[in-house]
Design goal:
Elements lengths: L3 H6 L3 H13 L14 H8 L3 H4 L10 H4 L2 H11 L23 E5 L2 H9 L6 E12 L3 E13 L4 E6 L8 H8 L5 E3 L2 H12 L6 E3 H8 L12 H9 L19 H27 L13 E2 L21 H12 L4 H7 L21 H14 L7 H8 L5 H12 L3
Parallel strand pairs: 1-4, 2-5, 5-6
Antiparallel strand pairs: 2-3, 3-4, 6-7
Protein name: 3'-5' exonuclease
Main location: nucleus
Organism: Agaricus bisporus var. burnettii (strain JB137-S8 / ATCC MYA-4627 / FGSC 10392)
């Protein structure tokens, strides 16, 4: 299949003969699909900068400014991305699968440290980002949205990370840094709403979010639709000549260990988003589209603080700060203790306050409990000093604490 990019390039005999000559000179072999394992993290970290030799994608779409103006190289990139395609007959389109792309692999992890290592191993440049969470359907209450359970990240080296975060102690710090990095584009569909959900659930302020539908309106004279948000399935069909299947996995339980089908569903969503973005980048170079300044603001967005007007859940009582809460505040604000140290120092379990103690008992408090102590002290005594940025960092160190305390924190920022 010749996609929309190649059909435009082959509209004249002279361009067509030039492209055919380029194709004959290319040596395109389909690579192997890498297996996913925990050791992949260290391998990715060691060779993450070697994008030229290992990338499955043309060098000209990886953001190298020295090549962006070379139209002949861009045209070659267009032919490479459509090398094995045939005539676009809709009913005969194949299902989209990341496995059709050489040297592509899924790495699925449920471990915070491994997730951080994997993020370090990603190749430089834009990434695709997608989220999954479980939706409850219950009687008159209707749909009930739960927290984000899975974050997918795909890079231009063929690595697709499927990171299940719901059982981690905290949101992986390097994943958060990637999402909040204004210099790294995160591409997807309805991606600003995904960014807002990350803020609601975990207090993350996503930056440089690229909406694929809006991007298509700028770079493609014949976009699939004349609107800013277009379904990923339509974009994949139009630009990749594939059918993106949306099966029952879409509303499955994303909080349990993921099945192979769930992993592949999640991987296809992220990988296909990046492939659409790459096709749109090619179009932007063919038609010499300016993507900076005011134009950039038409397809990128940021989640800013404060996000929205959230009613504060203030305590109605003016009772004195509990002694244990004040101790927690002093350990945090004045002594600058780590959260782990505070959990140990504030525990009263070793004094028998909570029944018999055995050698197998965990003497430390839960991180969420200590964070609640500190926030409670600040709520009940407005004279206590603190820096809002430091409080946000503390609350984000426990996966469930942000949703518990975000309403009050937002109120302190004047929302």
């Amino acid at each position: 299949m010749l996609n929309s990019v190649t059909r435009r390039l082959t509209s004249s005999p002279s361009k067509q003969s030039s492209l055919l000559a380029s194709l004959d000179a290319l040596d395109i072999n389909e690579g192997e699909i890498k297996p996913a394992s925990r050791r992949t993290a260290r391998k990715l970290k060691s060779d993450g900068n070697d994008t030229q030799s290992q990338s499955q994608y043309p060098r000209s779409i990886l953001g190298n400014n020295t090549q962006n103006n070379a139209l002949d190289k861009t045209r070659r990139a267009a032919t490479i991305s459509t090398r094995q395609q045939a005539s676009p007959v809709k009913q005969n389109l194949r299902l989209y699968s990341y496995k059709d792309y050489p040297k592509t692999c899924i790495v699925y992890t449920t471990h915070e440290e491994e997730a951080n290592e994997l993020i370090e191993g990603l190749c430089p440049g834009a990434v695709a980002m997608d989220l999954e969470w479980m939706v409850n359907f219950s009687g008159s209450a209707g749909q009930r949205e739960r927290k984000v359970s899975v974050v997918q990240i795909a890079d231009n080296k063929g690595v697709i990370l499927v990171i299940q975060i719901n059982n981690m102690r905290r949101f992986p710090s390097r994943l958060q840094a990637l999402i909040e990095n204004p210099d790294v584009a995160k591409v997807g569909v309805n991606i600003l709403n995904d960014g807002k959900k990350l803020f609601r659930d975990y207090g993350i302020l996503a930056k440089n979010l690229v909406e694929l539908g809006s991007f298509a309106l700028i770079v493609d004279p014949s976009p699939v639709a004349k609107r800013k948000i277009v379904s990923l399935a339509k974009l994949v069909e139009h630009y990749c000549q594939r059918i993106l299947e949306k099966g029952e996995e879409r509303i499955s339980n994303w909080e349990k260990p993921l099945s192979k089908k769930q992993q592949e569903y999640a991987a296809n969503d992220a990988h296909s988003s990046l492939m659409v973005y790459n096709e749109l980048l090619i179009l932007s170079r063919i038609y010499s589209c300016s993507l900076e300044g005011d134009v950039r603001s038409r397809f990128t967005s940021n989640v800013t603080w404060p996000l929205e007007n959230v009613a504060a859940e203030l305590d109605s009582s003016v009772e004195a700060v509990k002694q244990q809460h004040l101790r927690a505040y002093n350990y945090w604000h004045k002594k600058k203790l780590s959260l782990d140290d505070m959990c140990r120092k504030l525990s009263l379990k070793d004094k028998g306050y909570y029944g018999p103690v055995s050698t197998e008992d965990d003497m430390a408090l839960k991180p969420g409990t200590v964070i609640t102590y500190i926030v409670s002290a600040l709520k009940n005594n407005p004279q206590l000093e603190f820096q809002l940025t430091e409080l946000v960092k503390l609350v984000q160190m426990d996966l469930n604490s942000w949703s518990r305390h975000s309403a009050w924190i937002l109120k302190q920022n004047g929302v």
